[in-house]
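user: can you give me the structure for this one chain? tokens are fine.
assistant: on it. calling the predictor now.
[tool input]
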Amino acid sequence: MHNPFKKLSKFEFCLWLCSMVVVILCYIFSPQRDLFSTIGSLIGVTALIFTAKGDIWGQILIIIFAVFYGVVSFSRQYYGEMITYLGMSAPMAVVALIAWIRHPSKENKSEVEVKRLTPRNIIFTALFAIAVTFAFYFILSALGTAQIYLSTLSIATSIIAATLTYLRSPFYALGYAANDIVLIALWVLAGNLAMIICFIVFLINDLYGFYNWQRMQKRQSKA
């Protein structure tokens, strides 16, 4: 397989490097010293920069990140996050990976072909998110999930983001940005500095992802 780092622009490489440094510094100076969370964050940051490029390596690393994050969430009794990432985000990343492999850009085989959303896509995404979120609220309530309302909102934003990723829409990044904001609030309440910094960094990377996918869409449309 190709080396995804060779495809990064100078700005993208600097964004990735700065994100990695921030996560590492957070680990060094944090009183918790949560190595497992830090490793997961480093994997997640790398996944996001490749996803922002429309590179399949982004989806591969998201699957790995989901496992790390699921374990961390379980340890904090955030069962909603654990179920979301292990039971939904990871499997949907596998499905998205297959879709991305099957739909490469015509001008660049290592880049996914960006797709415009149709009204049918929008209706499906909305109905799917409502149905799954409604069902999971009662599951999380039965499990005694901490911060159940924020956890339920996290599920909704995660489902929307994962579905839009599968559909190869630039709006996947806004879905994940919304999810990042919810998760920042969750981990502030949990007092986990490493995860707070992690999702602040994720938010910045996801906003760049939205910007870059719009550029990709315009370039591919011209081609």
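assistant: here you go. Residues 19-24+32-103+117-217 form one domain. The chain has eight helices and no strands.
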